[in-house]
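Researcher: Next entry in the queue.
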Amino acid sequence: MNPDFDARRHKAMERAGFNRIAAHYDDAAHLRTSLQDALIAAAAPAPGEHWLDVASGPGLLARAMAPQLGPTGSVLATDIADGMLAHARQRLAGGEGNILFAATDAEHLCTRDGHFDGISIGLGLFVLPHPDKALAELQRSLKPGGRIALSVWGAAGTVPLIERAQQCIARLLPPPKVPRLSVFRFGDPAYLTAMLTEAGFGTIRLEPHDFHCRFTTAGAYWDAFLALAGGATEALSRLPEDKQQALRAAVADDLADLADAEGYHVPALTLIATAIKP
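Model: Structure for this entry, 278 residues:
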């Protein structure tokens, strides 16, 4: 990790950003439906099991898994952003009594050893400044034979959904004063496998998952990025209004090669990993 990286400031920025975008993150979830479905299929939650959903955000995975767990099972949705969890509670239809919520840091979980049958993390591992600590906490919290299922963005160069916005930001703004973590660092299968192995997991399986998003305008793409980017969205919100508008106007240049007659067709590669606690 870069010695200039400030983990405490990073967490504060991510918490503020995800609290800011809670409702928008939920509203944009349809863009990633195929990824959510694939992750739940890989996780294979079963009736009567107890699951932990880490970096749950507005509870997308928790809400989708709950019916499969049945009345004797449960899912505990956790996130560092309490505003995200508050939004998740508001979205419950009333029949999801097996969903619980806890605002907590994934690197310092207040969970019992060997309690959960399974743990899910949807596009959240790369947000954590010390993912090794988080994975150790998750491994501790699983029963022997319990499983983890997570998704991460692919390697740099394979996720235009994120990278085109980043290119626009890099083109128009100076580098951030405090270096940020790359959201693509777990897109290397060997690196992700090594992290899971070092945390004590076995039977590791990785599968690529491609999905595509369609946007009618460059502005719609930019709005979708801001509804996903957490800490980056918080940082951008603090810019003068003219800088924010300049970014919005310029993003079309970075999407030009993805344009077609109906707007913009933007792909993204992710990896879905599963592993078991021996």
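Model: Residues 4 and 119 are 32 Å apart (CA to CA).
Researcher: Noted, moving on.
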